[in-house]
Specification:
Blueprint lengths: L1 E7 L4 H12 L8 E7 L12 H4 L5 E5 L5 H10 L5 E6 L2 E3 L3 H11 L3 E9 L27 E3 L15 E3 H11 L20 H11 L3 E12 L3 H4 L2 H23 L11 H17 L3 H23 L10
Parallel strand pairs: 1-2, 1-4, 2-3, 6-9
Antiparallel strand pairs: 4-8, 5-9, 6-8, 7-9
Helix pairs in contact: 5-6, 8-10, 9-10
Length: about 325
C-alpha cells in the first residue's frame, strides 16, 4: 500500500473535489492506496464528508488536522502519520489521470535506484490565459519537459526533480526531510505559509535528500496531472512580481541550508555589475516578446541579491550535512 497525502489550507472546495474524484477513479484496487487529507488550519475546518467518494469505494482514508500554518508543517504531520515505503504528494488542485497510480507503481518496480519521481503538470483542457503569462507558468506549477524519461543524480535542480505536487517520494527521503526539519529554523522559511506567503523551494529541500542518500530523481512523462491553478488570481502582474522576488530569496536560502553560507556571485556585489545583469536580462526577455517576464526576472534577481546580502550581514547558521 502507498499513502497519498494532500496538504490543504482553505481550498477551493469544487477543485478539491476534482482531486478526490481523480483518486476515486484510479484503475487500481482500493486496497492499493490510502488517502490522507491534511487540514492545515482551514477555516472552517474540513469535514470528512469530502472523502466520501473514496470511503464508498472502500479506499482507506484519514483526515489529519495540523494547527501550525505552513506547508512544511503539513508535510511533517503527513510523514509522521504514515508508514508506507512510498508517499505520493498531491496538491489540493491536482487532478490525476485514471492510470496515475498504476503508472507510478510500475515505475517503482522497474527502478529500485529511484528516491523520488514525478511527471507532467498540465493545465486542464480549455484553460485560457494571456500570451504574456506563458513564461511564468513553470513558476506557477505547470511542467511539461517532453516525452523523454529523465533520471539524474546531481545535487542541483534538473528537470528530473519532481515538484511537490504529484511527487512520489521514498520513505528514506522522507525520513531525511523530517530529520532536517529539526536542524535549522530556516527550514520553515521554505514554501508557502497560508494564502499570502509566497516562499518556495521546500520541494527541492525534500527531493535533494534523495541525491544525498545515493538515490536518483526521475521525470516520468507517462505520469500526468491536470493542475487547476487559479488563473484569475495568479495572472495578476503584481502577484507574479512578488512571486518571482520570493523565488529569488528562496533559492539562496535553499543553497545555504544545503551547503552552508555561499559566496556572493560577483554580479550581485557591486551596483554597477548588478545593473548590467538586470539590464541584460530584461532586454533578453523583451527581445523574445516577454516584456512582463523580463520585469519578473528583475524581481527574481533583486530577491537573490537581497537574501545574499542579508545572510552575509548575519552569522551563518548550521546547514544540512551531505551524509
Amino acid at each position: 500500500m502507498i499513502d497519498v497525502c494532500i496538504c490543504t489550507h482553505n481550498p477551493r472546495m469544487d477543485i478539491l473535489s476534482l482531486t478526490i474524484s481523480g483518486l476515486a477513479n484510479q484503475n487500481v484496487k482500493p486496497e492499493v492506496f490510502r488517502v490522507i487529507l491534511i487540514d492545515n488550519h482551514c477555516i472552517p475546518p474540513l469535514s470528512e464528508s469530502i472523502l466520501l467518494p473514496l470511503i464508498h469505494l472502500g479506499i482507506p482514508t484519514l483526515l489529519i488536522r495540523e494547527p501550525k500554518l505552513g506547508l512544511q508543517h503539513a508535510r511533517i504531520a503527513a510523514i509522521r502519520n504514515t508508514t508506507s515505503e512510498w508517499v505520493l504528494w498531491l496538491d489540493d488542485d491536482n487532478e490525476p489521470t485514471p492510470n496515475f497510480i498504476q503508472v507510478g507503481l510500475d515505475f517503482i518496480h522497474l527502478h529500485p535506484e529511484i528516491g523520488c519521481f514525478g511527471g507532467k503538470l498540465l493545465l486542464p483542457e480549455g484553460a485560457n490565459y494571456d500570451r504574456w503569462l506563458a513564461p511564468f507558468l513553470p513558476y506557477l506549477g505547470i511542467k511539461n519537459p517532453g516525452e523523454e524519461l529523465k533520471i539524474t543524480q546531481v545535487d542541483q535542480w534538473t528537470d528530473a526533480e519532481p515538484p511537490g505536487a504529484s511527487a512520489w517520494v521514498h520513505r528514506k527521503v522522507l525520513n531525511r526531510f523530517l530529520q532536517n526539519s529539526s536542524m535549522n529554523v530556516k527550514f520553515f522559511k521554505l514554501d508557502r505559509n497560508g494564502k499570502n506567503g509566497l516562499a518556495s523551494c521546500g520541494d527541492s529541500m525534500m527531493m535533494r535528500g534523495a541525491v544525498r542518500l545515493g538515490l536518483s530523481c526521475a521525470y516520468v512523462p507517462a505520469l500526468k496531472i491536470f493542475h487547476h491553478i487559479d488563473l484569475v488570481r495568479r495572472s495578476k502582474f503584481f502577484y507574479l512580481i512578488r512571486l518571482m522576488y520570493e523565488y529569488g530569496k528562496s533559492h539562496v536560502i535553499l543553497e545555504s541550508l544545503l551547503k552552508g553560507l555561499q559566496p556572493i556571485p560577483y554580479h550581485y556585489q557591486l551596483d554597477r555589475d548588478f545593473f548590467i545583469l538586470i539590464r541584460d536580462e530584461f532586454f533578453k526577455e523583451k527581445a523574445k516578446g516577454s516584456l512582463f517576464f523580463g520585469i519578473g526576472m528583475i524581481a527574481y534577481h533583486l530577491g537573490v541579491r537581497s537574501e545574499h546580502i542579508r545572510q552575509h550581514k548575519n552569522k551563518p547558521t548550521p546547514f544540512f550535512p551531505m551524509h
